[in-house]
Amino acid sequence: MTQPAFILVRPQMGENIGAAARAMWNFGLDQMRLVAPRDGWPNPRAGALASGAGRLLDSAGLYETLPEAIRDCTYVFATTARARGLTKPILSPERAMEQARAIQAEGGRVGILFGPERAGLENEDIVLANATISVPVNPEFPSLNLAQSVLLTAYEWRRASVEIAPEVMELARTEFASGLEIEKLGDHFEARLEAAGFFFPATKAEGMKTNLRNLWGRLPLTRADVQTFHGMLRQMVRWAGK
């Protein structure tokens, strides 16, 4: 088992089970377990919400009790939105999934418990867990539905498991302009602005040119951008000539 098992404890609506499966599969997770689903199993309503994640429902483990569902787990997290008065570590989803990844990497097996839609896990469920996961939600409205909780946790697992660049630039059939290309663009602008009498008075001309060069240096220009600027300047000259 190279990923944690997402264990839905006494889920009430098939639609929510299906939405949870879809959320799991969005982030590459397929180990779903169901503990005593209220409306029985299988449930056709789950498939309607699972969309392309129906395979998770087909392979989901079905258990009558929670102890049976976590019997092979070496570490269990319980998700909860409220204080329980129990002495347990309380982790953010990010920290919990970092730990889960480390445990799995060492050969352990992690289970993550999600409670029924109406009121979440009971204390009798949470005492079986090693730690709890708590989301810093709005204290005036702490309710997260089942699929939301699964999605948030699955996202943090994915984030802890793969290298995700915090920011990328998508270049549409182009590449960043070279220093020489930006230098030539600056020359072109200066020549056109000089001809238009922009650099006035003469005592301020050098400072104005420096500011323009600094502007070009700050911009992440692509080759397509540079070509566009050159084209604009040429067209303005043609229009002025007419």
Structure commentary:
This protein folds into two domains: 5-161, 3-Layer(aba) Sandwich (Alpha/beta knot), CATH 3.40.1280.10; 179-241, no CATH class. Helix 1 links the parallel strand 1 (5-9) and strand 2. It is elongated. The chain is α/β, with parallel strands linked by helices and 242 residues long. It contains ten helices and seven strands. The mean pLDDT is 90. The longest helix is centred in the last third of the chain and has 19 residues, at 223-241. The chain is 47% helix and 11% strand.
- Tell me, briefly, the overall form: elongated
Distance from N terminus to C terminus (CA atoms, Å) equals 74 Å
Q: Order of strands side by side in the largest beta sheet?
A: 3-2-1-6-4-7-5
CATH class of the largest domain: Alpha Beta
- CATH architecture annotation name of the largest domain: 3-Layer(aba) Sandwich
Residue-averaged pLDDT: 90
Number of structurally distinct domains: 2
Strand content: 5-15%
CATH superfamily of the largest domain: SPOUT methyltransferase, trefoil knot domain
Q: Note the main sheet.
A: 7 strands, parallel
Structural class based on helices, strands and sheet pairing: alpha/beta
The radius of gyration is: 29 Å
Order of helices and strands: EHEHHEHEEHEHEHHHH
Low-confidence residue ranges: none
Query: How many helical stretches?
Result: 10
Instruction: Please provide the count of β strands.
Output: 7
